């Protein structure tokens, strides 16, 4: 197992020395930044050099950029980095805010050595599990099968399930959040509204298959189908003004391939890890 890289972002020289002297003998590679801005620079540099930090330990109150603002930036750049927040605020509100922003843990200052090492050990194990999962991804396939009655209220959780499983397979969560929800919403809404005509005795079936190369979503309804040739051309700007044209356009933008079966009651959506155009 490679040495765990820790970025300590702390404006107190005393705390910097304390943390370095505590962590380095435990075989952590420690890099220190004096404030949030320089911490962000070092974090980005690590990503560019393909030597990302496994754990970020940051103070909250610092000049130029606060620890909470740094946390937001780190979460945008890499959601899998473990972030531990150091706070001297006796009020638990700061810790709660940090957790809500995506921190994995927090420590009250001044923390004792045993508490720090315990938190770091748990953070390291959490990171190891993620890395081991990533190594297994090329040999893993995930499937989800969902059956819902023809009610729109059941649509909301479908995209969340797809994104959660795709993230475990190493897909970019931020990109998927931009594409999957609107695509799934349009596809399942069409199946309920136009396919099953809101008939609650008829179901919509959603089958998802995720592997290292692509995400495949198949949406099927129990309706009579339709003439597939009547589907508006999503590349024609005039179709954007048509309700059905907007849905096809959204799905075409969000996915790499969109196709119907001959009957028109099964829709297949494909999203590749690497776009065919690249």
TrEMBL record:
SMART domains: REC
UniProt key word Phosphoprotein: yes
Spans through the membrane: none
Residue numbers of 4-aspartylphosphate PTMs: 59
This protein's UniProt keywords: Phosphoprotein
GO biological process: phosphorelay signal transduction system
Protein name: Response regulator receiver protein
Organism name: Candidatus Moduliflexus flocculans
